[in-house]
Design a protein that fits this description.
mainly alpha; two-stranded antiparallel ribbon
């Protein structure tokens, strides 16, 4: 496979993952906190909606970042393996 084509595919995949992570962050920031107002019982002295907005969102953001790092590491590793395999192939 051509090196330029591989680079384009890599960045296209990277941009798709970033778009998905951004969309998920948007949904968590605005969607969950908007509907959390319906959860109006008290939890540890505070409204439960406060806990969902303040603590749950942070955990989801952390998971988004961890998943992005894991996925990009896997994508980088796969790209390096393909590059090594193409370098080892005689006649290229």
């Amino acid at each position: 496979m051509d090196l330029e084509l591989r680079r384009r595919r890599y960045w296209r995949t990277n941009l798709r993952v970033i778009q998905l992570a951004t969309l998920l962050g948007f949904v968590v920031t605005f969607g969950v906190t908007f509907f959390a107002r319906e959860l109006d019982f008290v939890f540890m002295g505070w409204p439960f909606s406060f806990w969902v907005a303040a603590q749950g969102s942070l955990l989801v953001y952390l998971l988004i970042v961890a998943d992005y790092a894991w996925f990009m590491n896997r994508l980088d590793r796969r790209g390096r393996e393909r590059q090594w395999a193409s370098e080892d192939t005689p006649g290229d």
